Amino acid sequence: MEEDSPDRVDQLEETFEEMGGELHDFFMLMGQYDTITIGDFPDDEAAAKAILAVTEQGNVSSETIKAFSRETTRELLEDLP
Question: How much is the pTM?
Answer without folding.
Answer: 0.74
